[in-house]
């Protein structure tokens, strides 16, 4: 008698090989009906799990891991949810690990995700270049970096908004509406994307013959009370400041509050633009101009490329840049 | 020669039994130094993994799963992050699954988390009563429900803010500052907590001799354009409405925008209070009064009780209610 293969089981059950594998391993998703059907066919054919099924068992968990620094950040949670949605439609479950911007924690969660046998990994943002140490791994896991410079670009697909373009356009807009001393407000802890935004800001100053020096950049730290102190000190030193591009909306909103308490009129005296175009921009006083990242496109690109890398593990090394859009509201109006 | 036990290895290595188990199984967290030390002791003593170590291997993954409907919601992401922080300090990794308020997805993720061998589970919010079907599970997993009514309270620990008290106090405040026709604004998709808030609202009306009827409750649906239509229709029918308790801050902020566009003055003509006290309440026009949930206390209670249940699986059946605080801002001022 010809040995029954997992393919035969799939054919006889009217489902895919992947589904048969999931039922055999009781891992991933299938209906109770499917389970019954597959188990019935297995029984009828006297199928015994062979090497091929064991390979499937070892190599496929239908689970994707996501490392994210801070799920309370709008941009991150939006991208993560959109990725999860797409992957689920394709039969993959997503498990999310929140690293709290802690390097040690990130390494630990990398180990955990490997231990759970994820088929692929998406790494979002972070301060340092990302490197994946495979020395203790049971298998190489394809991974995608979003807004996180990989140490070795040849090992991954790198996806990012065009932060440079966004900051450049926002800065040129500030200059166009009359700012003579625009500044860039950024956290001391700088991410890959913040660095790109800073260089877009610098380049726009340069193109418009403005000087970039200490008076062009306001460094901030959490908590808000510290930001307030730093902002007041900066405005004491550089009272001609009349435009701010903030590295994200949360910072921009905090600055709106601080400047309001310092009796500045926005946008009459100081114009402010944020980054991310989070929903909150519509509720602030005044509504906040912001650079919109295309989270749907980023999520779609990341999910598609990860699934592609899982099938073609050698096709790494790509960099994909997603365009951004400047959304103008009252905070930067003439 | 006496057989060496995992306890002996732990003693000789100067680490806990749990750490020895993690090293043996290469699962969870330990330093490179610890790993070397433990492996050296194992080699020196000629220790062979025995039944006890295998039990540890089968039963402990040092991973906790969290099911959450929507990580972009401030309350959820805040609680999840605080739980993760506490559990990590105790040596546990947390994996988060975002169910998108989709029942089928929730069931699938329950299976996935069981497949990954989590030691415990925290279920946050959701529309339906939560029940955990163990029939296909390899082991019983202790679980905690936060803001999610369990189908069988004897199987779990139930943790919740005192939504009833929060809504009651907020409603009494609206009445105290002069509202003669306060309403409750809620999504048609009602969670466990929204139901509690509604009953707090009703009870405050009753205590103050106000009638509760169709004119007391504004049902809303996403997206915002639909909310706008529903709100306009409601105010056409009930133009005397002069106070709103919204079921969460996101809804309250959307209503502030809609009412502003309808030319209402807040708080002069209509007073508004939200729920959750998310950071956004400080940035709205006007700043939003809100009922603050004690996310630190909720997270701490959930993490502690889950770890306790993992050691004492029969000590279920508790209900823990965490007090809330009404934070007053300009949106409900006299």
UniProtKB/TrEMBL annotation, chains A, B:
It holds the Pfam family Peripla_BP_3. The keyword Phosphoprotein does not apply. Residues 4-58 form the HTH lacI-type domain. Signal peptide: none annotated. Keywords: DNA-binding, Repressor, Transcription, Transcription regulation. The keyword Transcription applies. CDD domains: HTH_LacI (cd01392), PBP1_Qymf-like (cd06291). Gene3D superfamilies: 3.40.50.2300, lambda repressor-like DNA-binding domains. One of its GO terms (molecular function) is DNA binding. SUPFAM superfamilies: lambda repressor-like DNA-binding domains (SSF47413), Periplasmic binding protein-like I (SSF53822). This is LacI family DNA-binding transcriptional regulator.
